[in-house]
Design goal:
homodimer, Rossmann fold, Dehydroquinate synthase-like, alpha domain, six-stranded parallel β-sheet
């Protein structure tokens, strides 16, 4: 098992494929075959495996077919020296990371995340995953990449929309961490690709700080990264929202509940609600495809209809209750046990609050 | 990642299934349904998954079907608390260990090896594996069991034949380790179930000593455990011999070559050839189904016909050559790089030596 901290390379140019040596397999999102600049880089890898991104890629059912093809393509290489380079967003990273982790008991993994969300979050911390029986991430490993390349021209080439979809994880990390990241998030003039690139090193560093204290979620500390995710997962599953957008709403829910539960005092609450980053996030939302999305709309269902998603989340914990991340103030999260039934009055209360 | 040293429990009675808690899945060799004593123990596990042992169980192709069934059987349990108890020999252990390692990114694994070979070797050190494309162990993880139970009545109930098939790994460990294990192996009156049980704790301890220095085979130290295995794998693949029997022959080949190459001096060589454990191993062989097996018979093919197996082995290393474990004397192994072509004259020489 490598260290849980991957070596980070923030680069303004594509790394030369030669630097990965002769025994390399590139697993990449086939969408890049249509992007001439990326495609010409991809073609420098003699052995490559193109995949279609999305949750279907992560299906356990089709894993043997993928794996057999990958073994066949690489059978003449030394398993000891083999490096697997994975170019893509979250689903490609989850899949490629899992392949690297089980290929002859594990080969060197190098991530090149191609979306803001994967660059900030999923490429770091070693979670790999496949889906099974219609449920996400039922099968997987903890297998951190040896190196992660953050390639400026790749990330900046994304549609602006992808930037908005990453705000949930960005704001989550800033609220969990407080300090320099939180200050910098408030200080940037606007939230766009340029400022996301500036914030990226700090966001990643804060994630590693938490991951390293509890790499395999044995102590409950890594659970802090679930801030905003409990209701975020509910919104994601129920409405089919992109992960980052759902988490943004989940964060709002969690902050509001933190105040109601008394974890956050009124002064801190008011300060947070008026913080500059919120205004910028709201502005970014208004310029995105999600401009009509509101907490009121998300909470317009009967509270009871969210219960089954919450029950699902509960099974991931070792206790009888859900472990919910509350916030005292930026940099001071608190984990508390909450019963699924406790959500119902809070959802009802927030329905009228946001209404 | 747990420590690579599993907690060992040498017990003279079956452990109570209750001690594993409520969230437990038993994966077991279905052959035990026909053994009333074991079957009554098995039936105390409310959730269990019976498998047919053998290499087919380890097929990557059928893994999704197994895994989906296992997820379905356990979906109501807490993934955080889940323990997977695996009762069986090598193939069941390799499979069950892999399942535990990827079940929601890893749950607690408990091995109860049911054969001498798995009790001495494969249940320890964390190697899990599936087969793919007709080749063994192409997919797998390093995932040590939290605990291993060595259950005396289970191991002693095996046919005597299984004891003989474990001698290869036992003698290998004694030659690698030297010291107390080597002396004790020479001192026991005979090699039977009773003395195997006596030797078991020492054999396992010596394996962990090597594994802990290089748990994931990154430094080449763990490669020492391959002593006798290079030609052993050739014999196993070419003649379909049981692993332990093939390793026994592989050890003879390696010791003979060690002397020829000058790693072992004549005095040590003669002493080793006359060591008491050899006489006991020969006696055990004469009483086994393998009494007619000889090095001469194994080496009766054209040396060239073994090349493809050796080429296969070579790909596992990071160098251009094969890494072969030689012996100076008991407790003093030496790893040296050998070209595949170097085997041909040595095989030819041993053909006439054993003839």
């Amino acid at each position: 098992m490598a260290s849980f901290s991957s070596r980070l390379n923030f680069v303004s140019q594509w790394p030369s494929p030669k630097k990965f040596g002769d025994d390399v397999l590139l697993i990449y999102d086939r969408i890049f075959d249509r992007h001439p600049k990326v495609a010409s880089w991809v073609k420098q890898f003699p052995i490559r495996y193109a995949v279609k991104s999305g949750e279907d890629l992560k299906s356990l059912q089709s894993f043997p077919v993928h794996m057999n093809t990958i073994l066949q393509k690489t059978h003449h290489l030394s398993a000891r020296r083999l490096k697997i380079v994975v170019l893509g967003g979250g689903s490609v990273g989850d899949f490629g990371g899992f392949v690297a982790s089980v290929y002859k008991r594990g080969v060197e993994l190098i991530h090149i995340p191609s979306t803001w969300l994967s660059a900030m979050d999923s490429a770091h911390g070693g979670k790999t995953a496949l889906n099974a029986r219609g449920a996400k991430n039922q099968v997987g490993t903890f297998y951190p990449a040896k190196e992660v390349y953050l390639v400026k021209p790749l990330l900046l080439a994304q549609p602006a929309e992808r930037g908005f979809e990453a705000l949930g994880e960005l704001i989550k990390m800033a609220l969990l961490a407080g300090g320099p990241l939180y200050r910098k998030l408030n200080a940037v003039s606007t939230l766009n690709a340029g400022t996301l690139w500036q914030l990226l090193p700090l966001v990643i560093r804060e994630k590693y700080k938490i991951v390293q204290k509890d790499p395999e979620e044995k102590k409950g500390l890594r659970h802090l990264l679930n801030f905003g995710h409990t209701m975020g997962h509910v919104f994601e599953a129920h409405y089919g929202l992109p992960h980052g957008v759902a988490v943004l709403a989940g964060l709002q829910f969690a902050m509001e509940w933190s105040y109601q539960k008394g974890f956050m005092n009124q002064k801190d609450y008011l300060k947070l609600m008026q913080a500059k980053f919120w205004q910028k996030a709201v502005k970014a939302k208004q310029q995105s495809a999600w401009k009509n999305l509101s907490m009121l709309a998300l909470l317009s269902e009967k509270p009871q209809s969210f219960v089954r998603y919450l029950e699902q989340d509960k099974k991931k914990t070792s206790s009888q209750d859900l472990r919910f991340v509350f916030l005292k103030n930026p940099g001071k999260p608190v984990i508390a046990e909450v019963k699924v039934q406790d959500f119902l009055p809070e959802i009802a209360r927030q329905q009228s609050f946001w209404g």
